[in-house]
């Protein structure tokens, strides 16, 4: 091999080796250049998720859960035995009777007061006692008293009756008439007094009976937790509350009606006293 050929071969080998080294270096640097280019670019902002919708605050009706009371009147009636139900029925009857008497007596007293004032005015404007009695409303207390007084004045005969002085006979007859009117006003008052004095004890009896049954059930089950004790005992106390609710209106109504009765009887006795004097005098 000549010197020129050797130099050419050597030069070609060097160029080939340089080309291979350059290709190898380029192959190594391409990933680094791509990474550097990616790093040099501004990083994309991360995707921001839309905020979740805030739920609306629940209303007061939704926040307040309806809690059903398992120990109310419905449970008392549904779970009670015959004694408890009978006691509750008695209290209801006592309450209904009390309110019926209170309302009827109020209307009766009002009518009697109006009649006492108007009848007295009509009677004393009449020309005579008989004419005054005829002008009075039939069935009223004043008409009843005046009729009895005139009858005693006109019929004072008979052996036994004549033994009594006429004035005493008229007085006795009119006193009986006034007593009858007073007895009519007292109708129903005894019931109110009985309800006012016994209703609390009837309710207390129902409470004692309910507590007894509750303790028996607790003893049989063997569970003495607060929910097993407080619920039935509280349910039994409803009887006492009902008894007091029945007794209080009855007592207050009794005292109020008694005072109104006194006002009616004052007017009635005043009319009877004046009529008694007229009948004894024999003239106006």
SSE topology sketch:
Blueprint: H1 3-40, H2 60-63, H3 73-79, H4 82-124, H5 129-135, H6 141-154, H7 159-162, H8 166-185, H9 189-221, H10 226-281
Helix pairs in contact: 4-5, 4-9, 4-10, 5-6, 6-8, 6-10, 8-10, 9-10
How many domains make up the 3D coordinates?
A: 2
Mean of all residue-level pLDDT scores: 74
Unreliable segments of 5+ consecutive residues: 30-36, 43-47
Our estimate of the beta-strand percent is: under 5%
Distance from N terminus to C terminus (CA atoms, Å) equals 187 Å
Count the strands? 0
The total of helices stands at 10
Helix/strand structural class? mainly alpha
For the sheet with most strands, the description reads: none
Q: Could you estimate the helical fraction of the residues in percent?
A: over 70%
If you had to describe this structure to a student in words, what would you say it looks like?
By secondary structure, the chain is mainly alpha-helical. It has 2 domains: 1-34; 73-281, no CATH class. It has helices at 3-40, 60-63, 73-79, 82-124, 129-135, 141-154, 159-162, 166-185, 189-221, 226-281. Helix 4 (82-124) packs antiparallel against helix 9, helix 5 (129-135) packs antiparallel against helix 6 (141-154) and helix 8 packs antiparallel against helix 10. The longest helix is centred in the last third of the chain and has 56 residues, at 226-281. The radius of gyration is 54 Å and the shape is elongated. Mean pLDDT is 74; it is low at 30-36 and 43-47.
């Amino acid at each position: 091999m000549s010197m020129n050929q050797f130099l050419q071969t050597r030069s070609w080998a060097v160029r080939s080796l340089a080309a291979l080294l350059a290709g190898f270096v380029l192959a190594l640097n391409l990933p680094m250049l791509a990474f550097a280019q990616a790093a040099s670019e501004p990083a994309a902002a991360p995707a921001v998720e839309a905020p979740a919708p805030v739920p609306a605050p629940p209303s007061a009706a939704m926040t307040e859960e309806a809690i059903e009371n398992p120990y109310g009147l419905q449970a008392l009636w549904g779970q009670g035995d015959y004694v408890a139900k009978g006691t509750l029925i008695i209290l209801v009857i006592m309450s209904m009777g009390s309110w019926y008497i209170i309302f009827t007596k109020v209307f009766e007293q009002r009518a009697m007061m109006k009649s006492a004032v108007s009848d007295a005015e009509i009677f004393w404007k009449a020309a005579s006692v008989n004419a005054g009695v005829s002008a009075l409303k039939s069935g009223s207390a004043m008409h009843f008293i005046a009729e009895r007084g005139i009858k005693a004045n006109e019929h004072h005969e008979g052996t036994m009756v004549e033994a009594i002085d006429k004035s005493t006979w008229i007085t006795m007859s009119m006193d009986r008439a006034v007593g009858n009117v007073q007895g009519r006003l007292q109708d129903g008052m005894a019931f109110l007094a009985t309800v006012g004095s016994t209703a609390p004890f009837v309710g207390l009896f129902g409470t004692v009976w309910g507590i007894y049954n509750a303790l028996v059930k607790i003893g049989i089950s063997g569970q003495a937790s607060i929910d097993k004790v407080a619920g039935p005992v509280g349910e039994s106390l409803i009887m006492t509350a009902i008894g007091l609710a029945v007794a209080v209106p009855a007592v207050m109504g009794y005292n109020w009606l008694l005072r109104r009765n006194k006002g009616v009887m004052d007017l009635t006795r005043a009319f009877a006293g004046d009529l008694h004097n007229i009948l004894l005098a024999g003239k106006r």
